[in-house]
Amino acid sequence: xxxxxxxxxxxxxxxxxxxxxxxxxxxxxxxxxxxxxxxxxxxxxxxxxxxxxxxxxxxxxxxxxxxxxxxxxxxxxxxxxxxxxxxxxxxxxxxxxxxxxxxxxxxxxxxxxxxxxxxxxxxxxxxxxxxxxxxxxxxxxxxxxxxxxxxxxxxxxxxxxxxxxxxxxxxxxxxxxxxxxxxxxxxxxxxxxxxxxxxxxxxxxxxxxxxxxxxxxxxxxxxxxxxxxxxxxxxxxxxxxxxxxxxxxxxxxxxxxxxxxxxxxxxxxxxxxxxxxxxxxxxxxxxxxxxxxxxxxxxxxxxxxxxxxxxxxxxx
Length: 316
Description:
This protein is α/β, with parallel strands linked by helices. It has helices at residues 2-13, 24-33, 56-81, 118-132, 192-204, 234-243, 253-262, 275-288, 300-307; strands at 20-22, 39-41, 89-93, 104-108, 137-140, 162-164, 179-185, 211-214, 226-230, 244-249, 267-268.
């Protein structure tokens, strides 16, 4: 959502009239960010992950079914909506059913190649490739030249429609006095989100390091060293990310683009079982020397090592 909001802001600055269709779980974000824009809360939840672990083949079958069901719902709603409304461009953030053959349709995605075992992903990749063809243009929020931020996920071979538009981030690099504090950025589904925060706090508090937690969660252990802020808007998060000496977060692609934009390394801990996050954490560790840890085995040593290293990051 954050990368899409940056693109929406660009459209508005260029003088375009914009309306937004979203799902219920995206409503509060867009209402807070763009209170003046017409919002249609009508689309299915777009948060479908390809999970690793046992029963992968069965899980993949279910995911393909869920993907296709969601795409059909998106397509049906848009077709009906266009009977009474007209647009010059339909812009889709990773929604593969959100296009129309009579309107120029653009897809925003960093993922043209699915992560995971190629043998098991053969069918899902075929389905993805087929749906990519429905769009007139594919915009990839990444650099065209290497090292790319998305690694092999944005492999654009055989996709003549694809163009690299550079990273999209609502968070910018600003001048801010550096504070000795660990910023924990929460994201993803519950109960993993709250458990993630609790595990980090238990380990870092022992080191006497101040902790700031952003993002909604269940009640967290409180102390003089721990401050839970809950939801923060983009300007608040921008200030916190720039002024915090250290950051811990998931390896979601939007968060990684934000880190690249402000030029900071973070300790990245992928959500266990999510192929994309696991791949990106491994790729950023190898390519950009980011520290990473396993959420099922977070140790004090992980934080000691991270807190004693430089957090400056420049893509070369």
